[in-house]
Design brief:
Layout: H1 5-12, E1 18-19, H2 25-35, E2 39-43, E3 49-54, H3 55-65, H4 74-77, H5 91-101, E4 105-110, E5 113-119, H6 120-143
Parallel strand pairs: 1-2
Antiparallel strand pairs: 2-3, 4-5
Helix pairs in contact: 5-6
């Protein structure tokens, strides 16, 4: 039985680092560095997801605008088309989405609002735990 996004969030927590669309790229870079994370969810009114700002977006902003890219707002450089998942999404479905779309972070949405974030590391950790449980179950069955 494959686990769900809800199970991952219940274990790891639902805290998400967010920023508003007017935050500058330079400010966001400091947040990424201090928090040792690879993505910030950009939120608008009522904690609704507006976009994602990732390390890739940072690189693109600098490549396109040079040092002036640091003064751009997240609203100008973020990834606006954000794929989301829900608590009912299975780990297998999420792995497929992350692999096919080449995402390392997927925000979790509930009733139109941000409810958490799942990283590829969270998915791998969950899948390893699931395989280990299955192996233990098989050992117990064989031992009788």
């Amino acid at each position: 039985m494959t686990s769900s996004v809800k199970a991952i969030l219940d274990l790891k927590g639902r805290d998400v680092v967010t920023a508003g669309p007017n935050t500058t790229v330079a400010e966001a870079a400091v947040i990424l560095s201090k928090k040792k994370i690879g993505a910030i969810v950009v939120v608008g009114m009522e904690n609704r997801i507006s976009g994602m700002f990732t390390e890739r977006d940072l690189v693109h902003a600098i490549a396109k605008h040079g040092k002036d890219g640091l003064d751009q707002s997240l609203g100008q450089v973020m990834t606006a088309k954000v794929y989301r998942c829900h608590e009912e999404t299975t780990v297998n479905e999420l792995m497929e989405l992350m692999t096919s779309r080449r995402f390392r972070h997927v925000p979790v949405e509930s009733h139109g609002k941000l409810a958490g974030i799942i990283s590829i590391g969270d998915v791998v950790k969950s899948r390893i735990a699931e395989v280990e449980r299955e192996a233990e179950d098989i050992k117990a069955y064989i031992a009788g």
